[in-house]
């Protein structure tokens, strides 16, 4: 076939390169992704109202109406208790996540880069990973007591294992040819790690961090349910004991919102890290 195929000329606007139809749609719908993501929560809120106030399918004790839960939140906010519960829970999660994720990054990097350390420590770490979260609670209460330290340590345990697993597995599977290419350019040790290996595993590292953050919120509730006098987990347990289903649902909604907020912030950091490193 002798005929040469030529691409059709692309007309570019005066202010820059041509945009695809998808890009043009995005410009026309600022915040479109946020609006689409809000569809399901709004539908769930509508169904919630329908089965409570709308049809009376559930009694107020079983499932209070959305406005009842909102009123309970306003009451706790005006008394100052709501801010206290949210603040202490968020503080515990951030401290525990920082400690657990930091240790997971360090130990995962060590075992991922060193075959000797991996053979020596990985079986032990794997055995501890199989221990259920609640099994640590009695031991922590015995050793540390019911103060803040025991709660933060439990949350750190929850955040540690997903981060460790992701970092360790990613570093063990970095393309050997990529590493050799880095060494050919004179990169060794810490410089090789920062220039070649870490950028190669950034997506996996942040996947582990986001899983670790989710685990931190799960372990927070476990810690506050068993030994706490404040926090959203404590509010859950106190509301159950007092028959305050409205406050119980409020605590669940707040846990979901705070968990989503922290995950979103970590996602922003992830996107910036991917632009810089990957």
Q: What is the alpha-carbon Rg in Å?
A: 25 Å
Mean pLDDT reading = 83
Helix count from the secondary structure assignment: 12
Please bin the fraction of helical residues. over 70%
Low-pLDDT runs of 5+ residues are 1-17
Major beta sheet, specifics?
A: none
Judged by helices, strands and strand pairing, the structural class is: mainly alpha
- Overall body shape: globular
CATH superfamily, by name, is: MetI-like
Strand content: under 5%
Biased composition (Polar residues): 1-13
Keywords: Cell membrane, Membrane, Transmembrane, Transmembrane helix, Transport
Region (Disordered): 1-26
Domain ABC transmembrane type-1: 82-267
What is the gist of this entry?
Keywords: Cell membrane, Membrane, Transmembrane, Transmembrane helix, Transport. By secondary structure, this protein is mainly alpha-helical.
Q: Helix and strand layout, with pairings?
A:
Layout lengths: L20 H8 L3 H6 L1 H16 L11 H14 L1 H33 L1 H15 L6 H8 L4 H25 L3 H9 L4 H38 L5 H11 L2 H32 L2
List the defining traits of the structure above.
single chain; 278 residues; mainly alpha; MetI-like fold; transmembrane; MetI-like_sf
Please characterize this protein's 3D structure.
- This protein is mainly α and 278 residues long.
- It has one domain (66-276): MetI-like fold, CATH 1.10.3720.10.
- It has 12 helices and no strands.
- The chain has helices spanning 21-28, 32-37, 39-54, 66-79, 81-113, 115-129, 136-143, 148-172, 176-184, 189-226, 232-242, 245-276.
- Helix 4 (66-79) crosses helix 12 (245-276), helix 5 runs antiparallel to helix 6 (115-129) and helix 10 runs antiparallel to helix 12.
- The longest helix has 38 residues, at 189-226.
- It is globular, with a radius of gyration of 25 Å.
- It is found in: Cell membrane.
- InterPro entries: MetI-like (IPR000515), MetI-like_sf (IPR035906).
- Belongs to the binding-protein-dependent transport system permease family.
- It is a multi-pass membrane protein.
- Residues 1-26 are annotated as: Disordered.
């Amino acid at each position: 076939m002798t005929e040469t195929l030529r691409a059709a000329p692309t007309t570019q606007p005066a202010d820059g390169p041509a945009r695809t139809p998808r890009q043009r749609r995005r410009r026309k719908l600022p915040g479109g992704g946020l609006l689409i993501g809000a569809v399901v929560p709004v539908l769930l809120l509508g169904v919630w109202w329908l089965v409570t106030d709308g049809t009376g399918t559930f009694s107020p004790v079983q499932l209070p109406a959305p406005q009842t839960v909102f009123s309970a939140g306003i009451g706790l906010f005006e008394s100052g208790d709501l801010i206290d519960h949210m603040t202490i829970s968020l503080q515990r999660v951030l401290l525990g996540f920082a400690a657990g994720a930091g240790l997971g990054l360090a130990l995962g990097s060590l075992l991922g880069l060193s075959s000797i350390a991996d053979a020596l420590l990985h079986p032990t770490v794997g055995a501890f990973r199989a221990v259920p979260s609640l099994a640590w609670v009695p031991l922590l209460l015995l050793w540390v007591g019911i103060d803040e330290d025991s709660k933060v340590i439990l949350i750190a345990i929850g955040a540690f294992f997903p981060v460790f697993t992701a970092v360790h597995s990613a570093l063990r599977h970095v393309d050997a040819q990529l590493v050799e290419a880095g060494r050919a350019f004179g990169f060794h040790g810490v410089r090789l790690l920062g220039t070649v290996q870490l950028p190669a595993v950034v997506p996996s590292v942040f996947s582990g961090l986001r899983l670790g953050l989710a685990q931190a919120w799960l372990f927070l509730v476990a810690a506050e349910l068993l030994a706490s006098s404040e926090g959203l987990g404590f509010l859950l347990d106190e509301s159950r004991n007092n028959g305050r289903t409205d406050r119980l649902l409020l605590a669940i909604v707040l846990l979901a919102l705070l968990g989503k907020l922290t995950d979103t912030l970590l996602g922003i950091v992830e996107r910036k890290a991917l632009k810089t490193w990957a």
